[in-house]
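debug: dumping io for the single-chain case to check the tokenizer round-trip. Nothing else runs in this session.
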Amino acid sequence: MLRPVPFEGFVEGIALAGRVAAGEGLTSFTEPGIGRGLAGNGVWDLAALQEAVRRGVLAQRATLMPGSPNLHDIGDERLRIGPVKLFSDGSLIGRTAAMCCDHEGEPGNRGLLQQDAEALRAYTIGAAYAAGEERHKGTLSRGKLADFVVLGDDLLAVAPERIKEVAVVATVVGGVFVFD
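debug: decoded output
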């Protein structure tokens, strides 16, 4: 059972989570459970995220995916409501994400935690395309948002089992260092 969290605690939790995520190299996230009736707290979810943006403590770009009854045409390029999540399989994009555990029934399959350019493209260009944001994100190009991560090693040069050990040196969102 989820217990209500005071609004200030909710905003502080978003700030803390953002700092930790920036240290892991995350420049954006999708929240697939915002709104009443899901795991969220209804309008408090959106209000707390908006307050985190107002205070400058939301380190990443956020795309919110409320249940269809909660969908509203609000937001901007830093915090926006995204596509409606259809809960058909319980995952957002499980086959394209690096997982902490093996896929059920597939020992050794943790998604794209592997060493090749195809996996790197899936995490960058592919993720932007999947979110309908390829015009703004996914590559470092003139006119696109300046979101990127500086890593301590070349992901294509380290052994696949060492990828999780590669240090995040800096995380930049919109040209601003949110972790360094």
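debug: round-trip ok. The longest strand covers residues 28-34.
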